[in-house]
From TrEMBL:
The keyword Zinc does not apply. GO terms for cellular component: cytosol. Residues 144-215 form the HTH crp-type domain. This is Crp/Fnr family transcriptional regulator. Residues 10-130 form the Cyclic nucleotide-binding domain. It comes from candidate division GN15 bacterium. Gene3D superfamilies: Jelly Rolls, Winged helix-like DNA-binding domain superfamily/Winged helix DNA-binding domain. Keywords: DNA-binding, Transcription, Transcription regulation. SUPFAM superfamilies: cAMP-binding domain-like (SSF51206), Winged helix' DNA-binding domain (SSF46785).
């Protein structure tokens, strides 16, 4: 468990003793692909770190439309905010593939938090980051169309060290998952991909996307 904790974004800066304290409040849990980890509204008794695999955090609208809030992969944590927001999970979590999770019990973690001010500061920073991301997501979904969101997502996938005039990226998720992340349906997403291809902004083959016109893609995404 200490290895998982030391590789996590939330706890990687902590010393061995602090990791041991947190580990005393944690257990490992294996989940199968498509298994629901918790439902929106369930009592929040723990938060999680992904040791391996991928987990989606999502909400369902009244008509059953799914909106993915985030996808957590190895080293990432989720459901931290639920521990301090009234005691219930504000969204649901489901495994996208067979996964191993470190489950950190709320009561045990709160005791550790009281003895470790540095950890408390780090957790506040993490929650602030989550708030910023959720605010950006709300703005993106309410103020931009699907093609603009897709252009922005493709740009975010470019490696910082890729200096080629025609960068190449790969879709890490299935298009159904990407559609949910962008707040749309697969058919609408396919039309947006088709538009970008038709206008020779990208060339797509399977999960491989070659950016043919980086300037136009940035303009479409509102990044000048």
């Amino acid at each position: 468990m200490q290895t998982v904790l030391s590789k996590s974004q939330l706890f990687s800066h902590l010393d061995k003793r602090s990791l041991e304290e947190i580990g005393s409040a944690a257990t490992m849990r294996a989940v199968s692909k498509s298994e629901v980890i918790f439902h929106e509204g369930d009592i929040a008794q723990a938060f999680f770190i992904v040791a391996s695999g991928k987990v989606k955090i999502f909400k369902l609208s009244a008509d059953g439309k799914e909106q993915i809030l985030m996808i957590a992969s190895a080293g990432q944590s989720f459901a931290e905010a639920a521990l301090f927001s009234g005691g219930r999970y504000p969204a649901s979590a489901q495994a996208l593939e067979d996964s191993e999770l470190l489950v950190i019990n709320r009561d045990g973690f709160v005791r550790v938090l009281g003895r470790n001010p540095d950890l408390a500061v780090n957790l506040i920073a993490r929650l602030s980051e989550l708030l910023r991301k959720m605010t950006s997501l709300v703005e993106e979904l309410s103020l931009t169309d699907v093609t603009t969101r897709l252009a922005h997502r493709i740009l975010s996938m470019i490696d910082d060290h890729d200096s080629r005039p025609r960068p190449i990226v790969s879709l890490a998720e299935k298009k159904t998952v990407l559609a949910s992340q962008l707040g749309t349906i697969p058919e609408t997403l396919s039309r947006s991909f088709a538009r970008l291809s038709r206008e020779k902004i990208i060339a797509i083959e399977g999960s491989r996307i070659e950016i043919l016109d980086l300037k136009k893609l940035r303009e479409l995404a509102g990044e000048f």
